[in-house]
Amino acid sequence: MKKMVLGFSLSLAALGFLMSPAMVAASPQAVPVLSVSDQAFLASLAKVSAGTPAPELAARRPTINPKSLCTASANCWNGGTVNCSSNTSTSSCSAVDGNCSVHEPGHVTCDGVTTTCSPCPGCGEIGVDWCTGEDACAANCSPCDYTYTCNATFCTDHCRCNFRTCLQ
Question: Is residue 80 part of a domain?
Answer without folding.
Answer: yes
